[in-house]
Amino acid sequence: MSAGAGTALAYWATAPGQGELRREQLPEPGPGEALVRASFTGISRGTELLVRRGGVPDSQVDRMRAPFQEGDFPFPVKYGYLSVGVVEHGPREWVGARVFCLHPHQDRYVVPVRALTRVPDEVPSPRAVLTGPTETALNALWDAPPCAGDRVAVVGAGLIGGALALLLRRFPLARLQVVEADAARRRQLADAGLDAVPPEEARDDCDLVFHASASEPGLALALSLAGDDADVVELSWFGSPAPQVPLGEDFHSRRLRLVASQVSRVGAARRHRRDPAARLGTALELLSDPAFEVLLGGVRPFTAVTSALDELEHHEDLAGCVLLSYPDADGTERGAPARHT
Fold first, then answer.
1. Beta strands per DSSP E along 223-326
2. Gap between the Cα atoms of 9 and 95, Å rounded
3. CA end-to-end span of the chain, whole Å?
4. At 172, phi and psi to the nearest 5?
5. pLDDT (tens digit per residue) in 248-306
6. How far apart (Å, rounded) are the C-alpha atoms in residues 173 and 209?
7. Which sign does the torsion angle of CA 123, 308, 298, 160 carry?
8. What's the CA gap between 338 and 266, in Å, rounded?
9. Distance CA 195, CA 265 (A)
10. Cα dihedral sign for 323, 327, 329, 330?
């Protein structure tokens, strides 16, 4: 059997709230392609649960396509984009490398090597799964770069807001607050050295506010925390529902600016000098900071992916990125050599 032959097991969303594992035939890697064995994938709670519910708006089906998605919205669709694994077969310089790839939940896959980003030695594979949210957070900083001495607030401390706050803590800011309603999340972020407060303790007159709670109350709070002539950067994506945005009262008289940030395009401040591959590489380098461990949640076996998604759907108090582990993940982490067919 050739190195690229064989099958793979992949997760497909098949109907609202339903999904299944499917056995698929793998293509044989061609020139410039690699066969990757997954070690861990991460579930992007907001986007993937939206896909699972069938909530992708018709107007956004093209923009929402993941790089290696199969099928079409709403169903059936193979979706996901947080995969870390080891190259088993491909160009000599890639074999054995730990890599990040924007690939759905699947135990083995064949992709062009240009779609792979090497994971630095100092970044453990589970933490490397956070490359996606960290890249999104980095892009928001390029959309609205903070200045030294700024007063900054991050509203919403999920994966995106948490990653953003961890990056912002490196800046010489006058004040950084992470505003989060969930007490467990606040405790986790406080353990990482962040000033995490409930909404009622948030301080206003901010120079820059990032909103990542994906909720109407969160967006209203973000606008209220902004000082005159300040920017509010919106990172949330609401899907089909149209949120009510409080643009009355003093929104115009205080000359606030609402800035959209979305990872599909490189942030304006760096767009002419960075491409998505460079941005992805920078995100992985930033993950060398052990503080990002605070954003990791529980680990479930890949074969339990449907129950893991059910758990996320019905338990909003679950914090952190839920990881799916694949066979041999532990051996790979210890540096065991990749197996060849």
1. 226-234, 257-260, 296-301, 321-325
2. 21
3. 7
4. -80, 70
5. 888 999 999 999 999 989 998 899 999 999 999 999 999 999 999 999 999 999 999 99
6. 13
7. positive
8. 34
9. 30
10. positive
* β-bridge pairing 98-101 and 116-118: antiparallel
Beta bridge mates, 78 = 70
* CA distances (Å), origin 45, targets 113, 133, 184: 27, 11, 17
Q: What's the gap between Cα 318 and its chain centre?
A: 16
pLDDT tens per residue, range 18-77: 999 999 999 999 999 999 999 999 999 888 999 999 988 888 899 889 999 999 999 999
Rounded Cα gap, residues 177 and 182, in angstroms: 15
Contact by Cβ (8 Å): 170, 285: no
Task: Give the C-alpha separation, 139 to 145, whole Å.
Answer: 10
Give CA–CA dist 11/86, Å, rounded.
Answer: 19
Residue identified by tokens 């969303």 is 13
Which H, E and C letters describe 238-271, residue by residue? CCCCCCCCCCCCCCCCCCCEEEECCCCCCCHHHC
How far is residue 189's CA from residue 263's CA, in Å, rounded to a whole number? Answer: 24
**Residue 122 is encoded by which pair of tokens?**
């100092």
Residues 212-259: tens digit of each pLDDT: 999 999 999 999 999 999 999 999 977 666 788 889 888 999 999 999
- The owner of tokens 């088993």 is 88
Query: Which tokens go with 27?
Result: 């293509």
Q: 117 has which bridge partners?
A: 100
Phi-psi domain of 255 (left: phi exceeds 0; alpha: psi -120 through 50; beta: other): left
How distant, in Å, are the alpha carbons of 50, 61, 80, 125 from that of 69? 15, 12, 7, 22
pLDDT at 315: 84
